[in-house]
Amino acid sequence: MPDTELLSLQRDHIQILQQRYEQVLVAHGYDSLLVSAGAAPMRYGDDQSWHFQGYGPFLHWTGLAGQEHSWLLIRPGQVPILWLYQPVDFWHANLDLPEEPWHQAVEIHFREQQCAPPMALTGKLAVIGDPALLAKVGGEHNPADLLADLDETRVHKTPYEIACLARANEIAMLGHKAARDAFLAGGSEFEVSLAYQRATRQREAEAPYHSIIGVNEHAGTLHYQYYDTEAPARSRSLLIDAGVRFRGYCSDITRTTPAAGEGRFSALVQGLEQLQRRLCKMVAPGVDYVAIHRKTHEGIAALLNAAGVVSGLDDATLIERGITRAFFPHGIGHFLGILVHDVAGKRQPSPADAPFLRLTRTLEPGMVVTIEPGFYLIPSLLDPLLSGPLGDHFNHAVIDELRGCGGIRIEDNVVVTGDGATNLTREAGG
User: Fold this and answer.
1) Same structural domain, 216 and 231
2) Rounded CA gap, 89 and 97, in Å?
3) Annotated binding residue at 3?
4) Helices and strands: H and E segment counts in the chain
5) Are residues 177 and 110 in the same domain?
6) What phi and psi values does residue 323 have, to the nearest 5 degrees?
7) Full pLDDT tens readout for the chain, 430 residues
8) Which of 82, 215, 252, 382 has the fewest C-beta atoms lying within 10 Å of its C-beta?
9) Claim to verify: residue 336 and residue 314 sit in the same structural domain
10) Which residues belong to any copy of the Xaa-Pro dipeptidase N-terminal domain (predicted)?
C-alpha cells in the first residue's frame, strides 16, 4: 500500500475513533477525556530511566510511541486537542513530527512543560494514564468501567490499523529471513539478534517486545531472555520470536529453523507447520477462539503418535491425561494491535484446560489474532511424565535425541474478515 493511501486511512481512523470515544463518554456521563501519553519511570537508585513506548490509548490515536509527557483531550462534537512535549533542551533531541494529513483532524500545540496543560473545561472530566503522572490533575482518574469500554474500541481494527499491522509484518519478515540466514551461517544468538535488527532497521528497545532468540535447548524456554555471544559447538535449532513497531502497531512472528542433518527434528517442524496452517484457516467470524486452542491439542496428540514420541495411547487419552499440555503448555495466541498482547481479550476467564490462554472470545470481523502452536521438550514438564505411571509409553531414545533442540513454535498474525481471514504474515512472505 502506498504511503499516501495509508496516511489517508489514518485520517479516517481518527474520525472513527472520535465516534467510538464519543459513544463511550456519553454512555458513562463524561463531558471530556484527558489521555496522558505517559513517561518513562526512573530506575530505582539510578539517574537513568527505562525505555519509553507510550500508553495504549494515546498510541491508538497518534501512533507516537516515543512522545513522553504529552496529552490528548477528547470531547464529544469537538476537534481533539493534542499537546506535545517539546522542551528547549541541549541534553536530548525532540522527536520530529513530519507534516501528515491526520494533523488536519487534530488541533496540535507544542509546550515545554511536562505537566497537564491548563484547560477551561466544564462538566465531568475523566483522566486516564499512569497514576504516577495524574496526581495533580483534576477529574476522575482511571474509572474502571470507562477503561473497560475504551478497551473495546481497540478490538475491531480500522482499515488504517490493519494496514499498519500488515506493514509491521512485512518489515519483521525481512528480519526473520536475515535471522535464519545468520543462524545457518553459524551465528550466535547475539549475532542472530544483530542480523534481525539490521534488516528491520529498528533498535531492540523500540521493538514491541524483547526478541526471544533461542538456539538448541534455549528454544525450550518459552520467553528465553538472554543472548549467548558465542555459538555452541553444534547448532541444532533456532527459535526466534520477534516483531517490530510500525506507527505504533506491533507484529509478533515466530519461526523455527532446524540445522542441516536434523532429520527427526526437521520432520517435527514440518508437522507443526502443517498443523499451524490448518489452525490459521479456522479463523473466521463466529468461531470460538477457545475451540482453535483445543483443536491444537488434537493436532499435538496426532503429532506425538506420528513422530513415534509415544505409543500405545490414542489421541484422546493423550489430551485427557494432560500429556499434550506438557508438550504445548501455553495458549494458542492473543489479540494483536497497539500492544503485542492487546487488551479486551478475556471477557470470561480462561477455561481450566487452558489456564494461560489470553483470548476467550468469539471471533468477529476486524479482530486481529495470533496463531502460535508449539511443541517443546521442557525438562520440568516432561521428566515427571517419563518417570510416572505412563512412562513406558514414551520412546525415551527419540526424546533424548530431540531434547537438545529445545522446541518449536510457529506464529502468524491473522485478521478476521467478513467471510474468513487474511494471514498478514504469509502475505508478507512468511
Assistant:
1) yes
2) 17
3) no
4) 12, 16
5) no
6) -70, -40
7) 668 899 999 999 999 999 999 999 999 999 999 999 999 998 999 999 898 989 999 999 999 999 999 999 999 999 999 999 999 888 888 888 889 999 999 999 999 999 999 998 889 999 999 999 999 899 999 999 999 999 999 999 999 999 999 999 999 999 999 999 999 999 999 999 999 999 999 999 999 999 999 999 999 999 999 999 999 999 999 999 999 999 999 999 999 999 999 999 999 999 999 999 999 999 999 999 999 999 999 999 999 999 999 999 999 999 999 999 999 999 999 999 999 999 999 989 999 999 999 999 999 999 999 999 999 999 999 999 999 999 999 999 999 999 999 999 999 999 999 999 999 999 999 8
8) 382
9) yes
10) 11-150
Q: The C-alpha cell of 338 is what? A: 497497539
241 in a labelled binding site: yes
Range of the domain at 384: 159-427
Is residue 87 domain-shared with residue 196, that is, in the same domain?
Answer: no
DSSP code string of 289-348 = HHHHHHHHHHHHHHHHHHTTSB-S--HHHHHHTTHHHHHS-S-S--B-SSSSS-S---SS
Between the alpha carbon of residue 319 and those of residues 220, 296, 400, the distances in Å are 20, 10, 22
User: Is residue 288 a known part of a binding site?
Assistant: no
The cell for 343 is 487488551
DSSP 413-424: EEEE-SSSEEEH
Q: State whether 313 and 362 are in the same domain.
A: yes
The answer to whether residues 111 and 117 touch, using CB atoms and an 8 Å cutoff, is: yes
Distance in angstroms (rounded) separating the CA atoms of residues 156 and 417:
11
Cα of 251 vs its chain's centroid, Å: 6
In this structure, the answer to whether residues 78 and 52 fall within a common structural domain is yes
Domain co-membership, 46 together with 131: yes
Q: Give CA–CA dist 34/117, Å, rounded.
A: 10
All cell numbers assigned to 54: 507510550
Those residues whose C-beta lies under 8 Å from the C-beta of residue 11, and which sit 6 or more positions away, are 101, 102, 104, 105
Domain harbouring 387, CATH code: 3.90.230.10
The answer on 342 and 398 residing in a single domain is: yes
| Structure-derived torsion over alpha carbons of residues 299, 304, 308, 313, reported in degrees to the nearest 10 | -100
Strand partners, 370: 413
Instruction: Please tell me whether 252 is known to bind a ligand.
Output: yes
Q: Is residue 223 marked as binding?
A: no
